[in-house]
Amino acid sequence: MIFIKTRKELHEFLNADREMYIRKSLKERLTDILLSRENYHIYQFVKAMRYTQFYTTRKQKSLFHQLMYLYYSRKYNKKCVKYGFMIGAMAFDKGLCIYHIGNIVVNIQCTIGKNCKLHGSNCIGNSHRQDDCPNIGNNVRLGVGAKVIGDIYIADNVTIAAGAVVTKSCYEKGVTLAGIPARIIKKPSN
To answer: In the structure, what pLDDT confidence band is assigned to residue 190 with cuts at 50, 70 and 90?
Structure first.
């Protein structure tokens, strides 16, 4: 699980996530909001997730923090239902990029590193027991329909091809996994 312990960390997470969704110019940002574009809605979901992460770690401190936890958890859960996501709020490190709304399942017990990219219809979850969940490194990209299942480890900079089903650990950095069951089809060129 990824914990956000301080307000400074919260702002670091939000800034890293914002880069994935919010465009630079004011005109582009206003256009995204006015036209209700997908990237704007996904960022609102990620923002609610980050506040839920933050207040989950602080809810024992005071009644105010408990109320804020309840408020953001409710907001987060409503967005999950609205957009078709079932994502554990504590699973992702900063820089999460979700390309499309709909059908993403991530078990609450998973630990996923920085700059993860999800293309949609993904499942990252347990195999048999609740705690049999993947541990995924930094800069991992999951193609459309890619699944990562079980108590396995995925190294940094791995690309999981569209439709792949990963059920075994991959300790080699920078490779591409594809197939059912997934295997290495491409190694990094040095």
So the answer is: low
Residue 124, burial from CB neighbour count under 10 angstroms (0-12, 13-18, 19+)? buried
Task: Tell me the residue type at 146.
Answer: A
CA–CA gap between residue 54 and residue 34 (Å, rounded): 29
| DSSP β-ladder status, 97-98 and 183-186 | unpaired
Q: How far apart are CA 121 and CA 102, in angstroms?
A: 7
Three-state helix/strand/coil letters over 39-107: HHHHHHHHHHHHHHHHHHHHCCCCHHHHHHHHHHHHHHHHHHHHHCEEECCCCECCCCEECCCCCEEEC
- Please tell me the pTM assigned to this model: 0.90
**Length of the chain measured in residues:** 190
97-116-143 Cα angle (round to 5): 85
Dihedral angle, C-alpha 180, 182, 185, 187, nearest 10 ° = 170
